[in-house]
Amino acid sequence: MRILVVEDEKRIADFLTRGLQGAGYAVDNAPDGITAIDFIHATDYDLVILDLMLPDMDGLKVLERIRSRKVGPPVLILSARGQVDDRVKGLEQGADDYLVKPFAFVELLARVRALLRRGQPTPEKLQVGDLSVDCVRRRVTRAGESIDLAPKEFGILEYMMRNKGRPLSRTMIVEHVWDMDYDGLTNIVDVYIRHLRSKIDDRFPQKLIQTVRGIGYMIDAPDKPAAVKPPEPAAERQV
Questions:
Q1: Got the DSSP string for the chain?
Q2: What is the mean pLDDT of the segment spanning 87-110?
Q3: CA 20 to 30 Å from 204, out of 111, 125, 183, 223?
Q4: What value, to the nearest 5°, has the Cα angle with vertex 43 and ends 175 and 90?
């Protein structure tokens, strides 16, 4: 899942980015309203965290632009304006939640997860063969066995399972799971795919993660081979 943080104060933006990435989310940063609007037009975000006090425009103007779209992501407002009237105004203009600064990150993360549960139209539980992923509780099981994944591993697996049967290029995976400004080599995907395979495929007879030559990777449950009927006993010879 991808989150846009609209915050002009670098210290807070970096704090939010590190925490959200540690929780397994891909995060983009916009330091002002114009950049935020450009990002929102270019990318389908699952959630926007919006500071109201931006250098070029009021955050409520950004909120208005988000709500002018036919389908927009949930918006969590961050603001030092903590009066009841300020909170009511933000919620009435279309925000889904309002958190007053300063705040504890654990509370912000709980609110983020609640908004994603409420606003996420895609399934919260994904299934490919005997592999199950609970996207809300971030739990992975295969054949009833619990599997522990690192945040980036979980992000890749969730993205692949939401696109079951669809080949995904390394660039697509990087752009979805890592930050928009990630400038490293896409072969990092190969490293994480090896880690995933060692955890969810190697110990099981049915292999789910498939290499698509010339493209990248795909996850799917291969069709079960047709059952082979045992040979019928030969008819007894009559004497």
A1: -EEEEE-S-HHHHHHHHHHHHHTT-EEEEESSHHHHHHHHHHS--SEEEEESB-SSSBHHHHHHHHHTSSS---EEEEES--SHHHHHHHHHTT-SEEEESS--HHHHHHHHHHHHHHH--S-SEEEETTEEEETTTTEEEETTEEE---HHHHHHHHHHHHTTT--EEHHHHHHHHS-TT--S-TTHHHHHHHHHHHHHTTTSSS--EEEETTTEEEE--PPPPPPPPPPPPPPPPP-
A2: 89
A3: 125
A4: 130
Taken in order of first residue, the domains within the chain and their CATH numbers are 2-117 (3.40.50.2300), 125-219 (1.10.10.10)
For the entire predicted model, the pTM comes to 0.56
For the stretch 161-180, pLDDT in tens is 988 898 888 888 887 787 54
Query: How many angstroms separate the CA atoms of 128 and 219, rounded?
Result: 8
Which residue is listed with tokens 């549960």? 117
